[in-house]
Amino acid sequence: MSAAIDEYLAGKDPDATERLLQFRDLVLACGEVDERVHRTEIAWARARVFAAAFIYSSRLEIALDLRRRVHHPQLREAFPTTKTVITHRLTITSDDQLDDTLAALLAEAYDTVGPGTRAR
């Protein structure tokens, strides 16, 4: 793990930290990504950011960019960010919510939004 990630996670809720690291493993399993650690979040991109996560109190908050609107039990809100991309905000409060369904949506985001959406 990078020093930047360690710095971001310092002082955060231990359970939420573990969930963020589990989510990070799901992201990294998708393929080659650019990991961008900011003061308030961690984002993952190929040509374009397709996923981001941050810890809010004891919850893991995730943003997934998809080219379609989806429904998910942990969905907090979905809103268009461009003409072709919809950002989905999910709240993760337990380890079992980081499941195969979420992994499939993450892989879809990696494949469809990650490479960029122009001229598609």
Overview features:
alpha+beta; single chain; DUF5655 domain-containing protein; 120 residues; DUF5655
- Give the strand order, joined by hyphens, for the main sheet: 1-2-3-4-6-5
How would you describe the shape? globular
CATH topology: Aspartate Aminotransferase, domain 1
Count of domains: 1
Tell me which CATH architecture applies here: Alpha-Beta Complex
Number of helices: 3
Pfam families: DUF5655
Protein name: DUF5655 domain-containing protein
Domain DUF5655: 5-112
Organism: Rhodococcus opacus RKJ300 = JCM 13270
Q: Would you write up a description of this structure?
A:
The protein is α+β, with helices and mostly antiparallel strands and 120 residues long. The protein has one domain (1-111): Aspartate Aminotransferase, domain 1. Helix content is 30%, strand content 31%. It has 3 helices and 6 strands. Strands 1-2-3-4-6-5 form a 6-stranded antiparallel sheet, covered by helices on one side. Strand 1 and strand 2 (42-45) form a beta hairpin. The longest helix has 16 residues, at 14-29. The chain is globular. The termini are far apart.
Strand and helix layout:
Blueprint: H1 3-9, H2 14-29, E1 34-37, E2 42-45, E3 49-56, E4 59-66, E5 75-80, E6 86-92, H3 100-112
Antiparallel strand pairs: 1-2, 2-3, 3-4, 4-6, 5-6
